[in-house]
Amino acid sequence: MKKIAIIGSINMDIVSSVMQFPEPGETVKGLEFRTCPGGKGANQAVAAKRLGADVVMFGKVGDDIYGKQALQVLENSGVDIRHVETCQGVNTGIAVIHVNKEGENYIVIQEGANKHVDIDYIKKIQPFLDTCGLVLLQLEIPMETVKRAAQYCAEQGIEVILDPAPAAPCDGQLLRCIDFITPNEGELKKIACEDDMEKGARKLLDAGVKNVIKKAGAKGCYFINRDRMDYIAGFKVKAADTTGAGDSFNAGFAVARAKGYEDRKALEYANAVGALAVTKMGAQDSMPTHKEVELFMNDLKRGRGI
């Protein structure tokens, strides 16, 4: 299996559960409060490791208690954190998350140390990226850093998967380096400036992306490249918390690619990972193991469901 490099954010999630989201100016009572390690980069690293991959995390934390806690969880999960740096006098990234009774969420990000993951850092870690066969990127670190990392990996023949979240304009310099881009509906509309899914995907392909994977939540996903467009159905489960669902999907797809799965099988696996993740509360705490995913998929094949 190829070693997976994940370059991205490391946060502490501050989560409040509510019956319904407040309207502007309204105060509502919370049902539950908790803090738990998060950040799209760290979430995907933990998820990929639980699925059995060899995972190296690249990023930065602050010199606060949240940074120490986040690193401890990554290390306890078996993720290689030797190249994660601590920024002095800077807070660790924070995500303030509200989750309603339907399991929907909205999130406010405070970047903290994540905005210090700069081009100089990428230059420093290049020798270690060379040992990896696949890199997974997101957009919770500076865009220029993402572009430099993607460009270097593309030049070295390292497969690049981009989770374009939170959505931001992506220029041709970045898109030409991407083997797989995995937007959800809203992200695709913002990046491609196009409401129609197929037209939006074609615009990204014309800009240089090799393959587009449009995530559709519980419905599954669409796979689009210059040769075909396929729909891969999702799995029906009872959602407890959708936080981290996209991260689980991306990690599942990356692990399947690292194992050499062909595209459709890799996406079926990613759909199953994402489905299992929403059945539990939290982001990293909800990430399933490879064994759990296999049992889930085998049960469905036998008609037992979940």
Quick summary of this structure?
With 306 residues, this protein is of the alpha/beta class.
Unreliable residue stretches: none
Question: Structural class per helix/strand content?
Answer: alpha/beta
Tally the helices. Answer: 10
* Biggest β-sheet strands, sense, barrel: 8 strands, mixed
**Integer average pLDDT:** 93
Oligomer: single chain
Helix content: 25-40%
The termini sit apart by 29 Å
Strand content: 15-25%
- Any idea what the radius of gyration is? 18 Å
Query: What coarse outline follows from CA principal-axis ratios?
Result: globular
Which sequence of strands runs across the widest sheet? 4-1-9-10-11-12-13-14
What is the chain-wise order of helices and strands? EEEHEEHEEEHEHEHEHHEEEHHH
Total strands: 14
Description:
This protein has ten helices and 14 strands. The protein is of the alpha/beta class and 306 residues long. The mean pLDDT is 93.
SSE diagram, text form:
Layout: E1 4-7, E2 11-18, E3 30-38, H1 40-50, E4 55-58, E5 60-62, H2 65-77, E6 85-87, E7 93-99, E8 105-110, H3 119-129, E9 134-137, H4 143-155, E10 159-162, H5 172-175, E11 180-181, H6 185-192, H7 197-206, E12 211-215, E13 220-224, E14 229-233, H8 245-258, H9 263-277, H10 290-301
Parallel strand pairs: 1-4, 1-9, 2-7, 5-6, 9-10, 10-11, 11-12
Antiparallel strand pairs: 2-3, 7-8, 12-13, 13-14
Helix pairs in contact: 1-8, 3-4, 6-7, 8-9, 9-10
